[in-house]
Amino acid sequence: MEHAWVVAIALSVATLTNASAHDDFRSRADKHAPAFLMGDHVHKPGEWMVEYKYMNMYMDDNRIGTQTVSDADAIAYGATSNPVTNRMATPQQMTHEMHMLHIMRGMTEDVTFYTMIMLPSITMDHLRGPGAGLMEGRTFTTHNSGFGDTTLGALMRLYTDDNDDWILNLSGSIPTGDIFRTTSIPTGSPTALPYPMRLGSGTFNARPGLTWKHYFDFGSFGTQFQTDLPIGRNYRDYSVSDEFRLNQWYSHLITDNFSASIRVENLWRTNFDGADPMTPDMGISTNVESFRGGYWLNLGIGASLLHNGHLLSTEIVPTLYQDLNGIQLETDWSMVASWSKAF
Q1: Which of 11, 155, 204, 253 is deepest in the core (most CB within 10 A)?
Q2: pTM to 2 decimal places
Q3: What is the DSSP string of 2-59?
């Protein structure tokens, strides 16, 4: 009988020790992936998390494949490209800001529901081309902002132990972002904004993903594959790029409440399918559906601070390499800052 009590107590202590190790690893500053990533963790039943995230992407100069070109060369390239483009103008630079509200709720130990509400703000500078007549060589700026597409999803923990989590992301977006606004700035009459300045995809998109995280005493490692796949074409008769992101990161604990991270991202996008009849290719390269795809290699350098249950994270993301289809604005850098609180 005494032996039975000893065994029972030993098993209870072992269980508590394992649970404590499991919880301790997931209550540090590195408990979430770096600031740019989402869909990497679940919450306890009944637990809520609210997050505000601000993102900013800056694009400057045009690129043909892997080569940066001047504004003059971008216009000259357009005269001989297939299709002919940049006759009216060439883009020079673009700033894409995003305000995001992220709400999560744990439903069971292994299932968490979430939603993301997006508010993009996009500004693009242009240089007028030879098709602008007497206005050739002058600059103009266009802007668009409002609600983007809304994401709804479920995170399912497929496997967990003291050191590992496998998370399946089953999510999708609904087309709440406006995809057809006009401006009179370039021509003096209503002209449809080009593809990169539109606020949404116009389609329902599937966004499945998979994340693996491994915790050490001194930090954590993770890898995530995430997709964004439009379903069919929108009412303007086109669909945006299929998108595939492969991320790997390492977060190192400076203290339990402060961590630094490094992340490598491989990003692939396809060209658009179909065409909006109000985006003539000859006008500007941002209207050309076959000039939307490419490959980007990004490096994320970040930090996270955990204070009284509030998690503050930031990341700076320079683009190391990009190989773009046709001629497009190249991405120079991105940054993100976020605050989150679980309760």
Answers
A1: 155
A2: 0.91
A3: HHHHHHHHHHHHHHHHHHHHHHHHTTSTTSS--TT--S-----TT-EEEEEEEEEEEE
